[in-house]
Amino acid sequence: MSTATRRSSLTDWTLLVPLVALVALVLSWGRDLAPLAVALVAVCLAGAVLAAVHHAEVVAHRVGEPFGSLVLAVAVTVIEVALIVTLMADGGPKASSLARDTVFAAVMITCNGIVGLSLLVGALHNRVAEFNAEGSGAALATVATLATLSLVLPTFTTSKPGPEFSTAQLAFAAVASLALYGLFIAVQTVRHRDYFLPVETEPRPGAHEGRDGQKGDGDDGDHAAPPTARAALISLGLLMVALVAVVGDAKAVSPTIEKGVADAGLPNAVVGVIIALLVLLPETLAAVRAARRGRVQTSLNLGYGSAIASIGLTIPAIALASIWLSGPLLLGLGPVHMVLLALTVVVSALTIAPGRATLLQGGVHIVLLAAYLFLAVSP
User: Fold this and answer.
1) Compositionally biased, Basic and acidic residues: which spans (predicted)?
2) How confident is the model over 147-170, as pLDDT tens digits?
């Protein structure tokens, strides 16, 4: 099959699948779904995830790094926030901790799952995964600060009983989160953009030459000519459609998820974990594909950028929504989750500091994610 034919077929399915997933969202919105309908929506959800990854890569190829990873991270997070607010509005008192559970799950999945998988794949392909320690370290510091301000401090404040902020404290956390997020974006895209660009690495032994004479692993995606502005805009629009479909279809199947979690006798926090896993699928796949091409820095941009966006945009949105949402807003983490967060920050700092990582570091992060998932199911 020729390259032109292969790309044409890709364009066909990536155009069709988001639209079908959006139709499934419209037809299922606000309805109680039968098991067969849930299965069909789940298939549409999976297809929309794959389409979102494709269109995100097209946009990223056009705008370059670090803007490419920023587009996907922000787009996913904005729609994730809308999903959280919608579920909290519909969920009543049992949804009071949904924002905390989902945001913390997103932090653990991005900082341990996406980062760990990316380091494993990068090290498998190049023996050592190399990245820019300055940019990744700055991103990690921002994640740690945002997580501590928004998810740890509420457990220890005394203005309100329980792991809650007072109105003034919540307003401060929202403003601080937005300020830090804006500052990080300015540093990442303008003032120190070079800190977030992929590091040129020596290819592993046995790698063959790409079309332009550079070494590669058989994937010529990085060496192809960038798409036209029109193609990039179309992909950006389809990316938005696909992400809306991902989050909307996730909401459509969420009652089934909640019922299954309750029937299995699992903690309600598992719902937030499952939602975060579904919503972060596009970024996870995009990060792994970037790592396969030796662009580990792009993968780390996606991982840490998603964590920053998840906290930096969710907390202000929840603070605003709390004006009309009834019931308490529980943000503070419990002791077990605080230990996991502290361990994640320490291990991540040790991983990032050298600017190089092996299979061991990737494996450590994956084990941390596995510990979090296991303890979420069996607290």
Assistant:
1) 199-223
2) 999 999 999 998 888 898 998 999
Instruction: Tell me the whole-structure pTM to 2 decimals.
Output: 0.79
Architecture of domain 3-377: Up-down Bundle (1.20)
Cα distances from 288 to residues 70, 188, 283, 292, in angstroms, run 16, 21, 9, 6
Determine whether 161 is exposed, middle or buried from the number of CB atoms within 10 Å of its CB (0-12, 13-18, 19+).
exposed
What is the C-alpha to C-alpha distance for residues 232 and 291, in angstroms, rounded to an integer?
A: 22
Distance of CA 297 to the CA centre of its chain: 15
Alpha-carbon gap, residue 351 to 305, rounded angstroms: 17
DSSP state of 195: G
pLDDT of residue 90: 65
- The residues, any chain, with a CB within 8 Å of residue 196's CB and separated by 6 or more, are 65, 66, 132, 135, 139, 188, 297, 301
Token pair of 42 as six digits:
């789940």
Question: How far apart (Å, rounded) are the C-alpha atoms in residues 2 and 105?
Answer: 42
Domain extents in the chain = 3-377
Pairwise CA distance, residues 136 & 229, whole Å: 30
Angle CA(39)–CA(44)–CA(46) in degrees, nearest 5?
A: 95
- Say what angle helices 296-321 and 115-126 make with each other, to 10 degrees: 170
